[in-house]
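Continuing the batch. This is chain 6 of the set; chains 1 through 5 are on the previous pages. Same settings as before, nothing changed between runs. Recording input and output for traceability.
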Amino acid sequence: MHVRFIPMPQATNQEVPDQALVYDTAAGSAVAGPAFFASQDATPQSVSASTATGPTNPGPTITQHSVDELPGLLARDDGLTWVDIPTWDDEAQQVLADVFRFHPLAIRDCIERNQVPKIHVYPGYLFLVLHAPEAGKDGHVHYIELDQFVGPNYLVTVHGPINPAADPVVTTVEVESLLHRVESGRLEPSASYDLSHALASALSGRMRNFTARLTQDVWRLEQRVTAGHLGDPEQFLDEMFRARHGLLTVKTMAALSREVYARMAKIHIFGHDRGQFLVEDTVDQFDRLRAMADGQKDYLQGTIEFYQARTNTKMTIAAERLAVIAAVTLPITALSSILGVNFIVNDSTQYEPLAVSLVIMIIMSVALLIWAKRKGWW
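Output for chain 6:
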């Protein structure tokens, strides 16, 4: 478990919140007034997590702390407390239940895998579940879960259970990105939702990179189809459907995450100013990712249909040629089976009737071939 404290940026244009969350060290719980996130709204000129670009000064000094220091950190109003839980253990259970006093159902959701993203708003904080894609073997896509508890002056990130086949390192991609942005000065968070938005942006970037890798596969498959270099047809079709499955997975993840943030925007969970802007920006990111994945999936589906049409055409042509062969040989076979037992009998073979029969067979074959040619069958 990592306990970090991020000092507030030194800015003269930052408004002082009218309502600040007060951490009651005696009770060990967080108490806030109505619309507790709205009190963190800053003036439009304050630094935004989504607009800081270009060269920046070194970021604030992030300090590491022990779990025992958490009550004191949460009582401070000069920075943000970030608790990251890479793997679940008894200490994590104790911190979430006894120090933060989170709802038991939210803690249970951190222990168990969640199949879909979700948001639950509790008094004083919100609980958020998101998923990121990670490529596995044989076209399987792992769902990498990231849970967040977002309070007025703290952020708790919990990395949900993962498939044993997935590398545990892939669960820390978003938090490492956030840590790097803060330390490099590209992000100067003044509220907990700045950190949460940065995590969502990193997750959407991960989806975008995953979609880009799948797009490369789609282009390669499309080039093979148009060039006719298919190789093993069964393996080729399997590759196309694996790529389609990956794009469908990203589309589903982005669509579900978009609906979660749309709900947050609807209820103005982070207030009406900068916090609302960040939520709407996240909605836009997931909406565009959904459209990108859907567009690539449709493009791949067109490639699959083109491949299937070409294969079906070849099968139809082969069936027509087989039908021509059958039409030519069937009458000859019938005639030979009747006459053969009468004209070809050991030493008493009748050569003249046999020759006439062979001429008739040849004439029938030529006539049938001419007829099939006029019908356009070969």
